[in-house]
Design a protein that fits this description.
The structure is a homodimer. Chain A is α/β, with parallel strands linked by helices. The first copy, chain A, has three domains: 39 residues, no CATH class; 133 residues, Response regulator (Rossmann fold); 127 residues, Rossmann fold, CATH 3.40.50. Chain A has 13 helices and twelve strands. In chain A, the strands form three sheets. A six-stranded parallel sheet of chain A has the order 2-1-3-4-5-11, with helices on both faces. Chain A has a four-stranded parallel sheet with strand order 7-6-8-9, sandwiched between helices. A two-stranded antiparallel sheet of chain A has the order 10-12. In chain A, strand 6, helix 9 and strand 7 form a beta-alpha-beta unit. In chain A, helix 8 crosses helix 9. Chains A and B meet through helix 4, helix 5, strand 2, helix 6 and helix 12 of A and helix 4, helix 5, strand 2, helix 6 and helix 12 of B. Chain A binds a DNA duplex through helix 2 and helix 4.
Chain lengths: 333, 333
DNA sequence: GCGGGGCGTGAAAGCGGTTTCTCGATTATG
DNA sequence: CATAATCGAGAAACCGCTTTCACGCCCCGC
């Protein structure tokens, strides 16, 4: 007698309880005000049939899915994983689930992926470090409600949560400078990455404040293999310290340096960015700029919750990375 | 003229193209066979209105959401993150998205969370290392289609993908034994964890094969803080080598040992389990049993795809961890 | 004793698609 | 030329739930 999908429907419950579907709906949603005996009959029937409302149908009628989408360039990156983990846990407290969408670093697909993801959910948390600003602006209004991570811009109407990469990288550079380094090399992130550009700006600013330093730049990427691949080019610069785009790159670079018999930090200091959970445990413990990814997830949901409730979200946030000096940086020889 | 949610509906497109909604639906789904000019008109109208079908309504009518749920005890664990990442990427190739549900290690909530997650999606990938077997069996049929990870059991009707923790831990124990260790300590995982029990069985088997070794056991957990917390108890055993429940625990333990001035591997060898991405980079590089988490994600989707297509899924898989000897293990003093 | 106001419940109209079934208009066939 | 076969497209039912609206009933007051 059960429907094809095996699950009981509201109509079946209604029939069994001898009431209308409307009444069942009201009872299930706590909007029932009539005879307690009727409510009890409904509850009993629902229990008998092991009924639980079809989420899809409910969402369609209600116009909300209680789910948000989370678009990231690469879910294999611990930094995004940390955000996702805390976002998911935080949103869950309000009954929301997270649908993950991994663009696989394919910037060109992101607008479509974002749109599709958004259509499936009530809202979208957008992590698209390389999406052209015009598209981002467009998406942030077309796909609203949206919360944008790491893309601060006055043109973006959505709430944004960002990390001050510009000042963060300066903190690292100053740290190295303070240790006595005068020749640095910056191992860049992906081309087109906005946060990479912020780091570059930060370094330019630093260069102006410290005319005695030289900073070389090397093209790279965002993963540890990019760090590994850049090893020889880093060595070739002759720099005494390397600023990696992020922790992942730093880890790859350190691995490459070890293979080449270059000792960190004795021969060359290395710094990362992010402070992923393992940064402190790697060998040598990585000097980095700590980014509160969990807090990013929490705050992202806070903004999102306001948006889906049609409230005014809190103001934008710009997180200041905290310099985390560890053993991968030391005075030059 | 747009509906309240701002998105165009099929009816609006139909009106604009001067056809019925049925025709629009057919055109949008490539089932249209009539006049090409009609199809073109529909396409034009859809483009003009920037129409895209409401995913919810479509899912309701079609009876499928093109989404699968992924239930894990803790999304902050790199091992689960790796599975999620590859599962998400693999499923995406077939147009499926993943909804994440983090039970927060709360075993008692898992049955409800699983049921709720399943109701929202077409299927469920279940990662519940501590769920009582009866509940698991129950869930695997009630929530079908389900793919179960790390819970091999003849009573579970769903396809399962598992890791042979029992033999994996033996490999580690043999490795330590081969190095000359005769007094080991096993830092256990969470109570009730099935994979912990498998490890215990493996160690018992190993003890029988090597009567000259002594293996102490210490209660613990699955996170690095559990490893850290167990430091003193580990030291107190006087063992020359510690087998940690997993890499996370090992990392925490090593951190704790360092704090106590105990040198790894000189004073005590430490091994992990999982081979999380950073195991090779930590200090010292961690000897561990390597588990192909990415492959788990890929295979999980392969099974899942068969299930949602009503095909027979491939046979169950039992992955053999690969011993990964690194510098955290060495001969005892 | 009768009209008006609650109150509890059901009928029905959505939500936005898909799909079956039907029907009128062509085209093929005897 | 009549009729069957075919084809294109629309009407309407349906997916399962929510919610407005209306209705019947009971109770109250005059």
């Amino acid at each position: 007698m059960a429907s094809r999908s095996g699950a009981a429907t509201i109509a079946e419950v209604a029939a069994r309880a001898g009431v209308s579907p409307a009444t069942v709906s009201r009872v299930m949603n706590g909007r029932f005000v009539g005879e307690p005996s009727v409510a009890e009959r409904v509850r009993q029937a629902a229990a008998d049939l092991d009924y639980s409302p079809n989420h899809l149908a409910r969402s369609l009628a209600l116009g909300e899915t209680k789910a948000i989408a989370f678009l990231v360039p690469d879910l294999a990156n611990p930094a995004f994983q940390a955000v996702l983990s805390s976002l998911s846990k935080t949103a869950a407290k309000d009954g929301y689930r997270v649908l993950v969408v991994d663009s696989g670093e394919s910037t060109s697909d992101e607008p479509l992926l974002a749109a599709e993801a958004r259509r499936r959910c009530d809202a979208l948390v957008l992590c698209a470090p390389r999406m052209p600003e015009d598209e981002l602006v467009e998406a942030s209004v077309a796909l609203s409600p949206v919360v944008v991570i790491n893309r601060r811009s006055s043109r973006v109407s959505a709430p944004t949560l960002s990390v001050d990469y510009q000042s963060g990288i300066q903190g690292l550079a100053r740290h190295l400078h303070g240790l006595g380094h005068r020749h640095l090399v910056f191992l860049e992130g992906p081309e087109g990455s906005v946060s990479n550009q912020a780091r570059l700006r930060g370094l330019e600013e630093f260069e102006r404040s410290a005319p005695d330093v030289r900073i070389d730049r090397i093209r790279g990427g965002a993963g540890s293999e990019d760090g590994l691949l850049a090893t020889e080019r880093v060595i070739a610069t002759g720099a005494t310290a390397a600023l990696a785009f992020n922790d992942l790159v730093a880890v790859g670079l350190i691995g490459g340096l070890v293979e080449h018999g270059v000792v960190v930090p004795d021969d060359i200091s290395v710094t990362g960015f992010d402070d992923i959970p393992f940064a402190r445990y790697i060998s040598p413990p990585l000097t980095t700029a700590s980014v509160p990814h969990e807090e990013l997830g929490v705050q992202a949901w806070q903004r999102m919750r306001s948006l889906v409730r049609h409230e005014t979200p809190d103001h934008d946030l710009l997180f200041q990375p905290r310099l985390e000096p560890r053993r991968s940086s030391a005075p030059p020889r």
